[in-house]
Amino acid sequence: MRLLALDTATLHASVAALDGDRLVATRAERVTTHSDRLLTLVSETLADAGWSARDVEAVACGAGPGSFTGLRIGLATAKGLCLAYGRPLVLVSSLAALAARARGRGATLAVLDAHKGELYAGAFTVDEQGLPIPTGDEETITPAALVARLQARGGAALAVVGDGLVRAPELLSVPGVTRVDDDPAPHAADVALLARVRLLRGESDSLVEATPRYIRPSEAELMKARKAETTH
Predict the structure, then answer these.
(1) What 3-state DSSP class applies to 100?
(2) Same domain for 20 and 132?
(3) Domain span at residue 112?
(4) Residues 130, 164: one domain?
């Protein structure tokens, strides 16, 4: 199956083309806004793969958590491709895609900068094939609370990956915690590989109901809630 994957959870946009289990092309770029560059990256990746958009048999998208605007642009682009060519959509957690890079490392924590003094965090066990199995719910958490939780592990080995380490380098001071790599963002190539697993299970997502995985309310939702509280 020819699969096109996108991830726009951070300002490191990426696109990948997967043919079966073989990565045939990928493009990545740090962007100011995804709306300026994402379609160009899609076109360049398809050209590198030697495909037209009609050759794509499924479209995968990193669902987040991450940048609210980036996630909306990525999913809208993925849905547009699916609607135009009648292809299935497959969503993949952007934290799971991060964790997939810890192939064979076992206990793994994926962390992204959620801003406002918080991190997005997801705990996984990653097997030798790079398949991340969640071991808890994805959440927002302060660096201090996460450090305290990791310290309670008593020095057990834990691989950590993602740009949350830039925001909270103190995580690496906890005994047993090691960095997977210096790459801050999820890769569309890993989104593609995890999406392929879902497709082989016969799974896909509704184009009507699919939404980004924000985890926490948007600023607009928080303002609406605060306004409602003040009127009662």
Answers:
(1) coil
(2) no
(3) 102-179
(4) yes
Which of 168, 192, 205, 153 has the alpha carbon at shortest distance from 24? Answer: 192
| Beta carbons of 126 and 190 less than 8 angstroms apart | no
8-state DSSP, 151: H
**End-of-domain residue from the set 163, 179, 195:** 179
For the stretch 149-182, pLDDT in tens is 999 999 999 999 999 999 999 999 999 999 999 9
- Domain for residue 232, yes or no? no
Predicted confidence at residue 36, as pLDDT, reads 86
45 close to 15: Cβ distance less than 8 angstroms: yes
- Return d(Cα 82, Cα 75) in angstroms, integer: 10
**139 Ramachandran zone, left/alpha/beta (phi>0; psi -120 to 50):** beta
95 vs 121: CA distance, rounded Å? 7
DSSP 115: E
Whole-number Å distance between alpha carbons of 40 and 199: 26
Predicted confidence band at 130 (pLDDT cuts at 50, 70, 90)? very high
Q: Are residues 87 and 11 in the same domain?
A: yes
> Residue 22 is encoded by which pair of tokens?
């073989």
**pTM, 2 dp:** 0.93
Q: Shortest CA distance to 192 belongs to which of 71, 92, 47, 63?
A: 92
Residues 112 and 136 reside in one and the same domain = yes
Q: Are 86 and 192 in a shared domain?
A: yes
